[in-house]
User: Fold this.
Amino acid sequence: MHRFALLCFSSLAALQAQQHDLVLKGGHVIDPRNNIDGRMDVAVRGGKISAVAATIDASTARQTIDVAGLYVTPGLVDIHVHVYYTPGNPGAWAGDSSVQPDAFSFRTGVTTMVDAGSSGWRNFEDFRHRVIDRAHTRVLALINIAGWGMITDVTEQKDFNPKEIARLAAKHKDVVVGVKSAHYRAPDWLSVDGAVEAGRLANIPIMVDFGYFLPQRPYYELVGKHLRPGDISTHMFRGPVPWIGKDGKVYPYLYEARKRGVIFDVGHGGGSFVMRNAVPTIAQGFYPDTISTDLHTGSMNAGMQDMPTTMSKVLCMGMPLKEVIRASTWKAAQVIQRPELGHLSVGAVADVAVLNVLNGNFGYIDAFGAGFEGKQRLRAELTLKDGKVVWNWNGRGGQDYRKLPGDYGARGGFDHIIPPPGR
Assistant:
């Protein structure tokens, strides 16, 4: 009995010594919020970051995963996606062109997605019921200033109701992070200014997809007069945006807009990223504030592909890796007013991306087939959401099957191993 008690005490002591559920060991941590850029171990317990240190004893964790040679970052935050997955609306972002969030997020290192106005104030609650509340991915939303959102371009030309959006934003403040104006065709500013008014009432930012560029409402007036500090101009490298003057330099109005607090977001998409704008702009040090995909079924199967590919493009154009990570994590979280996300502080939610920076010759194309060659490419090797491994490309941390009990995988119930007769 005495020996049994000692064994129990020893087992209890061992369990108590395991103060972490998981340790990611030996990786290069980039955590811009905490100014970490170097080799560190990261530990997780109860879905939260429990330690970040130069060395964490593996014996203090129930599981250790070797991530040496890889980059450990906060889970990626993609602030421009379309995930109002509602079959039956052909060719619509609020319909067949949207992507099921869990089908795409984790395998790309993304743990938080922001749907950019697929739903409007008339159908947002349907979007929440059908998608947001059912997804394992953290899905947040911008509500479209137009009532029916992105069912078609036609629905985005009218039916603006800033007060109703403000009401919904207050009711659903756990998931609503902004307002969207997009695809507006008229020569006036009704869509943009309606979104600004909704943002003012709800105290949240707006994002503008300028849609159709018209001489009556030039882009420089959008970022110079209509957008407020903290508002977002997405599709920053779209073809019609005037970036480079005859002298080969970035136009001064863009620096002035950034100085007054306007946020410039990539929003690559299927038709909103051209090399001739992006390459010289980034070469001159005008980096995106936030990197996003404008994910939909068209862009994911074209030049955009995914978040790591979009990040790789600007990396190869000259944006430093630490700034690429910042624009894809902490800065993105700040822009959507979710400071609890996008970092690896102790006590923060354990959303983690483990990225491999591959070296070689890699080809990239923009939204119109123009290409260039880069020497690096990012790939998501491992993703943690709330401390759980949700993507594991290389099977890291898996046990050799030959060292497991011979009947592993037989879980009882109807799962019996029944040998054939005569054996």
